[in-house]
């Protein structure tokens, strides 16, 4: 059974559809990349699965014991967010809040999880640094550590390579590949077609109301013969 199943999904703004009758699954261990032009509905789709927005029609179902609040999420960063005045440790610790429901406090287990994920991503030495003083690549690692504090199973990433230099981009792809190899399911919005071809396992392409969903080999093969 799939972790997430989207069936006959209709998405849009203010009741006006931009995506209709969308059907796809996210299975355990997938590395799904969502492609499409600006305005195609990629971020809207992700926000609907996360429960931030509601679909116009259709259904989003969670299986295999998966819960909506167990998805780790890295949104697109604004300039204000990049200048957030908190320490690395504080930013990562906030990723534990989802598991507490309405009780906003942290326990020893949360703090151990933060230390573990900082070490896992090679940024433990940055934990006392101000988030706003970090490079773009370091900030993305911090946000990834924060997302990992919210999940053991599924990560959603919205354009995580945006604004990164080539070295930081490659390093981040390697981190994601390592996490996927460990069993974490990845769903990533991207405009980086080359990076998708080198890393994804599955592709969902949204364009002008049309969709493609399938394995990377099927997508690349179709693209070559288009």
State the main characteristics.
single chain, 226 residues, alpha/beta, six-stranded mixed beta sheet, three-stranded antiparallel beta sheet, 8 helices, 26% strand, globular
Mean pLDDT: 90
SSE order, as H and E?
Answer: EEEHEEHHHHEHEHEEH
- Structural class comes to alpha/beta
N- to C-terminal distance: 33 Å
Tell me the helix content.
Answer: 25-40%
Physical arrangement of strands within the biggest beta sheet: 5-6-7-3-8-9
SS strand fraction:
25-35%
**Spans of at least 5 consecutive residues with low confidence:** none
Shape: globular
What's the total count of β strands?
9
Rg calc: 18 Å
How would you explain this protein's 3D organization?
Helices cover 35% and strands 26% of the residues. The longest helix has 16 residues, at 166-181. It has helices at residues 42-50, 79-82, 88-93, 108-120, 136-150, 166-181, 193-199, 216-224, and strands spanning 4-13, 16-26, 31-36, 57-62, 71-74, 154-158, 185-189, 202-207, 210-215. A 6-stranded mixed sheet has the order 5-6-7-3-8-9, sandwiched between helices. Strands 2-1-4 form a 3-stranded antiparallel sheet, with helices on one face. The model has no long low-confidence stretch (mean pLDDT 90). Helix 6 (166-181) links the parallel strand 6 and strand 7. The protein is of the alpha/beta class.
């Amino acid at each position: 059974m799939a972790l997430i199943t989207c069936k006959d999904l209709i998405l849009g703004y203010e009741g006006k559809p931009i995506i209709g009758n969308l059907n796809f699954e996210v299975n355990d261990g997938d590395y799904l990349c969502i492609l499409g032009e600006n305005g195609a509905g990629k971020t809207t789709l992700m926000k609907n699965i996360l429960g931030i927005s509601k679909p116009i029609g259709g259904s989003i179902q969670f299986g295999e014991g998966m819960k909506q609040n167990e998805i780790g999420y890295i949104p697109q960063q604004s300039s204000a967010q990049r200048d957030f005045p908190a320490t690395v440790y504080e930013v990562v610790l906030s990723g534990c809040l989802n598991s507490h429901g309405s009780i906003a406090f942290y326990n020893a287990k949360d703090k151990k999880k933060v230390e573990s994920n900082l070490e896992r991503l090679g940024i433990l030495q940055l934990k006392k640094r101000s988030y706003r003083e970090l490079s773009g690549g370091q900030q993305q690692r911090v946000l990834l550590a924060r997302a990992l504090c919210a999940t053991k199973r599924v990560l959603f990433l919205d354009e995580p390579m945006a604004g990164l230099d080539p070295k930081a981009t490659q390093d981040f792809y390697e981190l994601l590949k390592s996490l996927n190899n460990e069993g974490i399911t990845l769903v990533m919005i991207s405009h980086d077609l080359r990076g998708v071809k080198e890393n994804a396992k599955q592709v969902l392409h949204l364009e002008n109301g049309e969709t493609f969903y399938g394995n990377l080999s099927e997508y690349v093969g179709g693209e070559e013969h288009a």
